[in-house]
Amino acid sequence: MSPTQPQPRTLFEKVWDAHVVKPETGDTPAVLYVDLHLVHEVTTPQAFSLLAARGLPLRRPDRTLGTMDHSTPTTPRGADGRWVYGDAQAEAQVQRLVENCRAFGVELHGLGDPAQGIVHVIGPELGATQPGMTVVCGDSHTATHGAFGALAFGIGTSEVGHVLATQCLLQRRPKTLRVHVEGRLAPGVSAKDLILAVIAKLGVGGGTGHVAEYAGPAIRALGMDERMTLSNMSIEMGARAGMIAPDDTTFQYLAGRPKAPQGAAFDAAVARWRGLPTDAGARFDREVSIDAAALEPMITWGTNPAQAAPVTGAVPDPAQAPDAAARASLEGALRYMGLRPGQALLGQKVDVVFIGSCTNSRLPDLREAARVMRGRKVKLRTLVVPGSAAVKRQAEAEGLDRVFRDAGAEWREPGCSMCIAMNGDRIERGQYCVSTSNRNFEGRQGAGGRTLLASPATAAAAAVAGAVADPRRLEVL
Ligand SMILES: CC(C)[C@H](C(=O)O)[C@@H](O)C(=O)O
Ligand code: SF4
């Protein structure tokens, strides 16, 4: 390459370089400009108070977008027009967000609003999330928006305050990691199974300090909703963000969405966005590759998302752990989960199924669950919670709600719900829940509750079978 030619750059580097207001020096992080700041009720009260205490205005109300999701009820409002909250704290949080957004002029999609929903579902749905943007939110699953070729990551509450006040953020430049996914996913194997397999391979710390880029033929073949499932869980392997290069699938998804550029402006944006993908010859700090065709439906058996196995596999035996520390951690996980070393995962008893969360609550996820439940009955408590009011409307227009109700499942209002159990939707101590969410930490879905993470099809199969089941073998259910 001649010295005058520009260095090939990765997708991450292009987005980072375009947003650096002040470069990083030895002891000071870079100042990074933020294009889109998403806000929800849990991580904003102190941040808005910080502004109020200093008498500062919100720097860019037009680049700040609010919704409520974590603490919101998923049962419809009563005949008196009132929502029934899980507890007083949940209601207070929601009220604070309403007041703060009104006081600071933030567009808020609150309860009952046709665009309300989980923050990581509504950003893309409204076309607010776009390629090449920097997107932040006081929420670790902000990585979801990376599916559009945005640099999107979670920030802490004090940083939320900085962004509200300045539209900028102090950031150290992360390293880069490319996850190259060869081949094609087999029928019955989904993006959720792929990301669980990637995390199982790399470990919960495998991406620490890095921004991941998912690339390769298997990724190109995925729709936007599936790509979001993948990017969403990047944080579960410690990655700062998880990006996917924008392509025609991305542009088609965005065309006509209310907050996307319209008409000639859209065409101009697409022309710009086409320059974002990683250049041939660009260097990553680390590269891994995985064969999509070899994957099976996955399910977690432990208390972190890397503790996963094919659904046809078995719970590992701590006696075979490579060292004492690994053995102790395995033993701890199995004790909490009440599972025996070597036991088959198929047939493991399940008490509750949760289909929802920012990982798997979009229309294609619900279609998958409905495909499995259609004409069948669930054997246990099954909650289906759409990711947004828009997903709920579309699902109902297709009659998916009927399929779920006829099967005996509960069809709820949009929100985070049982993913985090902040709104009163929870499992009981000792119960097993096959969940399409992203975290199986101890007590995540309710104190003492045991979570097994899986895809919508695997979760629906468990609901119908009353136990862990293989979604590719519906004929035996
Ligand atoms: C409540 C919020 C701060 C939290 C997050 O950061 O991700 C939640 O969304 C989660 O999934 O654990
Ligand atoms: S659905 Fe779950 S993971 Fe997603 S933002 Fe809500 S609580 Fe966090």
TrEMBL record:
Pathway: Amino-acid biosynthesis; L-leucine biosynthesis; L-leucine from 3-methyl-2-oxobutanoate: step 2/4. Residues 13-466 form the Aconitase/3-isopropylmalate dehydratase large subunit alpha/beta/alpha domain. [4Fe-4S] cluster binds at C358, C416, C419. One of its GO terms (molecular function) is metal ion binding. Coiled coil: none annotated. It is an enzyme of class 4 (lyase). The keyword Glycosyltransferase does not apply. Binds 1 [4Fe-4S] cluster per subunit. The keyword Nucleotide-binding does not apply. Its EC number is 4.2.1.33. InterPro entries: 3-IsopropMal_deHydase_lsu, Acnase/IPM_dHydase_lsu_aba_1/3, Acoase/IPM_deHydtase_lsu_aba, Aconitase_4Fe-4S_BS, Aconitase_4Fe-4S_dom, IPM_dehydratase_rel_enz, IPMI_cat. Pfam families: Aconitase (PF00330). PROSITE patterns: ACONITASE_1, ACONITASE_2. GO terms for biological process: L-leucine biosynthetic process. Keywords: 4Fe-4S, Amino-acid biosynthesis, Branched-chain amino acid biosynthesis, Iron, Iron-sulfur, Leucine biosynthesis, Lyase, Metal-binding. Its cofactor is [4Fe-4S] cluster. It catalyses: (2R,3S)-3-isopropylmalate = (2S)-2-isopropylmalate. Heterodimer of LeuC and LeuD. PANTHER family: 3-ISOPROPYLMALATE DEHYDRATASE (PTHR43822:SF9), HOMOACONITASE, MITOCHONDRIAL-RELATED (PTHR43822). Catalyzes the isomerization between 2-isopropylmalate and 3-isopropylmalate, via the formation of 2-isopropylmaleate. Belongs to the aconitase/IPM isomerase family. LeuC type 1 subfamily. This is 3-isopropylmalate dehydratase large subunit. It comes from Anaeromyxobacter diazotrophicus. The lineage of its organism: Bacteria, Pseudomonadati, Myxococcota, Myxococcia, Myxococcales.
